[in-house]
Design a protein that fits this description.
The chain is α+β, with helices and mostly antiparallel strands. Helix content is 23%, strand content 26%. The protein has a seven-stranded mixed β-sheet, with no helix packed on it. Strands 6-12-11-8-9 form a five-stranded mixed β-sheet. A hairpin with a 4-residue loop joins β13 and β14. The chain binds heme C (2 copies).
Length: 418
């Protein structure tokens, strides 16, 4: 890419072959530059705030040549990376860090559809459309068509992902699925390349394989080390299945190449640790579950629950005994993403407690009961207090036998999966 850089104090102008113009203002000079500059009701409003690990809004339509301002309202760094949707190799704006409180301005002087990423935070994805017409060029159409012809192993991987491999319990991709436990894997094949670069790995595929074989090696920001070892029970994928799943991930915006996938058999052979609770009785466990009040917060099958908690209908299909035991004995050890508690103080003097599902200046969403999500607009709110601990009580007081029974019962919860 030909890049001309004209520098002046606090102001950088990049002009590339793609006639993209980027102006970065130093955040020190102008901490919230752009917020006041919003001409209301105009197409050229173009402000995207980076809040709570999200682009808000995450879909924008602007005119060619309009200014788009990115404002980082989070307490940590983000970056902005823009590529053409039809050709993810065509980088319009290389990842540039926007520190907390900082902002960056971008002008796209071309028509088209563009993907937007933060390379630091996997789940942050957006789309930008620039007008006149929303039509793709002939070349873009051809490229998109070529992308659709994929080897059959990708299909096998797709079926595993949305089926027995259980990935869908925690990950969604694009509009498919609604899981909250793990990050969205939209365009993961593409983002893996950026991650690999940052982490010093050889290739995007190496990152994908590592994410699955050694999920603890790199934990996506905003999440905890909560991805199971899917090559061990209960998911228990074998080598060929792992390969298929990896090709499916490659197909999400990356290059599909089965030969590149190198699965270290030694890693697969590590034995899961022996379950000390293995002699429990699932039927007695079901009674413990009800007597201990677990069902007041957890849906199992068609049994209803009142207070908010994750559904456990299929928990035994993807969580091992270690996780289940820890969840019961020490629930604060690893609080699931999207299960943080918050107290929201409203200006009218009311206080509402719930699970924080969205937290931006404009809007707060609180899950106040299993099927009730309340939304408050920014103007209604006086302050929000986020609690880092879980609503789930600990059950350390149960006897060893009761815990064994309970875990044996949870392991039988596999929904329709086998
Ligand atoms: C029980 C929940 C759970 C299941 C099941 C699960 N994952 Fe994950 N996964 C997570 C969480 C949580 C993270 C983020 C923490 C981390 O990076 O390890 C993650 C991270 C990832 C990442 C890295 C994402 C990024 O943005 O870099 C990939 C890739 C991934 N998972 C693939 C898979 C695949 C493929 C499967 C199915 C074989 C799967 N996961 C099953 C919870 C899960
Ligand atoms: C007051 C509500 C409440 C009660 C009662 C409760 N839980 Fe939970 N539980 C939660 C919440 C909220 C989470 C998610 C946050 C976290 O990870 O701690 C959770 C998480 C879990 C998880 C992890 C789920 C996952 O997706 O990995 C398991 C397993 C679990 N609970 C089992 C139980 C069992 C067994 C009992 C009874 C002995 C119980 N819970 C009682 C609220 C509750």
């Amino acid at each position: 890419m030909v890049l001309t850089i004209i520098k002046s104090p606090g102001l950088f102008i990049y002009k590339s072959r793609y006639t993209l113009l980027i102006v970065c203002f130093s955040h020190l000079l102008h901490p919230y530059y752009g917020i006041d500059a919003q001409p209301e009701g105009s197409r050229a409003h173009g402000i995207i705030s980076l809040t709570n690990i999200e682009f808000i809004p995450n879909r924008v339509k602007i005119g060619v040549g309009d200014t788009l301002t990115f404002v980082n309202k989070d307490k940590f760094d983000h970056d902005v990376y823009i590529v053409r949707t039809a050709n993810l190799n065509e980088v319009l704006f290389p990842a540039t860090t926007i520190p907390s409180g900082g902002s960056t301005k971008v002008i796209i002087e071309e028509e088209g559809l563009f993907n937007l990423y933060c390379t630091i935070h996997g789940g942050m994805i957006g789309k930008i459309t620039t007008t006149g017409s929303f039509e793709l060029t002939e070349e873009e159409k051809q490229r998109a068509a070529r992308k659709k012809v994929l080897p059959p192993i990708v299909k096998a991987g797709e079926e595993l992902f949305w089926g027995t491999a259980q990935c869908y319990q925690c990950h969604k991709i694009g509009d498919r699925g609604d899981a909250l436990r793990g990050p969205s894997l939209s365009d993961i094949g593409f983002r893996a390349r950026i991650r690999a670069g940052i982490l010093g790995l050889g290739s995007a595929t190496e990152y994908l394989v590592q994410s699955i074989l050694e999920p603890q090696a790199h934990v996506v920001e905003g999440y905890t080390n909560a991805m199971p070892k899917v090559y061990q029970p209960p998911v228990d994928l074998h080598e060929e299945e792992l390969k298929a799943v990896v090709t499916y991930l490659q197909s999400q915006g990356g290059n599909v190449d089965t030969w590149e996938i190198n699965i270290d058999r030694q890693k697969l052979d590590t034995e899961p640790s022996m379950n000390p609770f293995r002699n429990g009785d699932p039927q007695r466990g079901e009674t413990v579950f009800k007597d201990a009040g677990c069902n007041s917060c957890h849906i199992v099958g068609d049994q209803k629950a009142v207070s908010p908690g994750p559904e456990l209908t299929e928990i035994g299909a993807y969580r091992n005994w270690t996780w289940l035991a820890e969840s019961v004995i020490d629930p604060n050890a690893e609080i699931g993403a999207n299960w943080k508690n918050a107290d929201v103080y409203l200006k009218i003097g009311e206080m509402v407690t719930g699970i924080l599902r969205k937290n931006t200046d404009e809007e707060i969403k609180l899950l106040v009961s299993q099927d009730h999500l309340r939304t408050f607009s920014g103007d209604e709110i006086e302050r929000v207090e986020i609690d880092e601990s879980t609503k789930m009580p600990n059950y350390r007081f149960l006897t060893f036998e009761q815990i064994s029974d309970l875990i044996s019962y949870l392991q039988t919860l596999r929904g329709d999966t086998k």
